[in-house]
Design goal:
Length: 122
Amino acid sequence: MAQLFRDLGWPETAESDEHHRTFQCTNGCVIGLFAASNYEPHFGPPADSFRAFTLCVNLESLADVEAVHETLKGVAGVELLEEPTEAFWGGGFSWRDPEGNIWDVAWAKGTSVDDRGGVTFP
């Protein structure tokens, strides 16, 4: 999974080690990754299908959403589930990562992005 974020161009932080990886995203948030084996003793092995949640990256514009879609086309192990579409609320698309997690990439009308890249919803 860490390679996926490297392929997206998100810088890995110096705090990453063999058990835990962290990535600084462009919108000011940090994504932390732990191996599924870290949680299996408590929750059991991961399911092979939809896990009843999605993860979402919110961007500044529909053009940014479309650019991420193009980038993901070249990332090994990614399954694009749909094309980016514009909607009354903004627009986006869904994709599945190499571990089977479903992600959304979205833009919501009326959101703003501050100078450090933080997203604020209307």
